[in-house]
Design a protein that fits this description.
With 194 residues, the chain is mainly beta. 6% of the residues lie in helices and 46% in strands. Strands 1, 3, 4, 8, 9, 10, 11, 12 and 13 form a 9-stranded mixed beta sheet that branches. It has a 4-stranded antiparallel beta sheet with strand order 2-5-6-7.
């Protein structure tokens, strides 16, 4: 008799919070959503039931930029209190991290390499593969970044992971959750690299 292998599946999907302002559909015909502006680096992450008790805090700098790359340059994205986004003339996205009004890090994310766009969302693919001593997995994930009617930045995170646990038992996981980062006062003296 052949051994029976069972696949495990888990799904965690959170509806868009009803008490958050709606996400703008974007301008018809626009290549990308208008995300230009300053945002608080600390925001809300909705992980569970659609109420304020299911929220935890998150950092926008960590959702937009590579944590490993920042740390290798001596920058912890949690130091920032503001994140400034500006679309360049070439439709690339300039991301600046500020701490108490001073620029601590700036980079430009290239359209077509780091992200793609629809009028409503800027999409960043975050797929990865890896293994540990008990599993091997491939994750297909992405952030869709849009703007709410009150000017907040909204991120819709979706991930699907496939793998083998103990290198024998197949499993599948899917996740969908939401982030919200409120607008911040525009900085006055941060030069743009546009």
């Amino acid at each position: 008799m052949a051994p029976l292998l069972l696949a495990a599946a888990a799904c965690q999907a959170v509806d868009y919070p009803s008490f958050w302002p709606p996400v703008s559909d974007g301008k018809p015909g626009a290549a990308c959503p208008d995300l230009d502006g300053a945002y608080k680096n600390t925001g809300d992450l909705m992980l569970g039931e659609n109420d304020s008790k299911s929220m935890s805090s998150s950092h926008l700098g960590m959702e937009l930029l590579s944590f490993g790359k920042l740390m290798s340059e001596g920058i912890d994205p949690k130091w920032a209190d503001q994140v400034v986004l500006q679309m360049t003339r070439r439709s690339d996205l300039e991301v600046s991290l500020l701490e108490k009004g001073k620029l601590i890090y700036r980079t430009v994310l290239k359209k077509g390499e780091s992200f793609s766009c629809t009028p409503k969302y800027l999409r960043m693919d975050l797929s990865s593969s890896g293994s540990s001593h008990i599993r091997v997995a491939t994750r297909f994930a992405h952030n869709e970044i849009g703007k709410a009617s009150d000017g907040s930045l909204i991120i819709r995170y979706e991930a699907k992971e496939y793998g083998l646990f103990a290198f024998l038992l197949p499993y599948r996981e899917s996740r969908l959750w939401w982030y919200r980062f409120e607008p911040a006062p525009a900085p006055t003296d941060i030069p743009s690299s546009r």
